Amino acid sequence: MFADRVLSGMRPTGSLHLGHYHGVLKNWVQMQHQYECLFFVADWHALTTHYDTPQIIEQNVWDMVIDWLAAGVDPAQATLFIQSRVPEHAELHLLLSMITPLGWLERVPTYKDQQEKLSEKDLSTYGFLGYPLLQSADILIYRATQVPVGEDQVPHIEFTREIARRFNHIYGREPGFEEKAEAAIKKLGGKKAKLYVELRTRFQEQGDDAALESAKALLDEQQSLSLGDRERLFGYLEGGGKMILSEPQAMLTVASRMPGLDGNKMSKSYGNTISLREDEAEVGKKIKTMPTDPARIRRTDAGDPDKCPVWQLHQVYSSDAIKQWVQQGCRSAGIGCIECKQPVITAVLEEQKPMRERAQLYLDDPSLVRNIIADGCEKARKLASETMRDVREAMGLGYN
Hints:
Elements: E1 5-10, H1 18-31, E2 36-41, H2 43-50, H3 57-71, E3 78-82, H4 88-97, H5 102-106, H6 109-117, H7 126-129, H8 131-140, E4 146-149, H9 154-171, H10 177-186, H11 190-206, H12 209-220, H13 227-237, E5 249-252, H14 280-288, H15 309-317, H16 320-331, H17 337-364, H18 366-394
């Protein structure tokens, strides 16, 4: 019913590191060529945990957007925008809060988990409790069909689906819905109308999922139907009302655990990161001073790559031939640790080179970034306004 549309966002935490690149941005770059993509800066979400230090957010926003562009996210292929510049997010969040049971928010798995992890902050606020609903509004305002997430975020998408389902159930029953749906069926034409009715009956009476999918495919092919009639017929299929909000699917992304300089997952909180656009000399220095197998005290001591953080980076960056060279050389003490690190340094710098070049364009002329975001916000707001028009009308707030 709804066009395939991907939505993903990031909190503005400042300059990004290679963990962000391998874990998220590489997926974004690939997806932008396959789907209609919207990527946004979740600055309101940043306030849920940094409400007392808002002054750090603005610069973080622009640093992060430059990193997106440096990584290869293309504003000609995807829409880039800032959450707070599209106030419809807040409006939908407010309206959805009117129908969201409190217990649904309290049972979101990450709620108590984050409170424990950030125990030094006072997170007994509605903003923190309600952030999953704001996240749902971010998705539903664009009627996104796919949301790329890791496994730990799947419950958030299911929560969003429940919210959309509840909204459609409460507000999708427009006056005279069945009569309007029956009239829309006739517009399909004789043969297709008969097929639609047969498939709907098979699904509703026998629970035939294949019949449901066939009916949806039939509707997808109908170009002459108005949007309103399409929504009615999709809703009528499953015995519900008019489909106003989409039910997004979680798009599970390949888990990519980018190792940090100490062997732990790369994270700012561990202080073990390499930034996307880090100075070349600093990259070399960081990798050269990485800890290695503690058993290799002297150059002549044999080592075990499995106990060395540098080996984890070889697994990300090195060819099979180099990895074999490392295994043999380390275990026989045929190579020293500095020699072992050099191919990693070369590979990281090679990966970063086009990023630095792309970023320099925007660093030299910051107005380019501002213009990209302004255009993206305009496009995003147009889509958001279309959804809010239907939401307001369904809730009796249209006042035409």
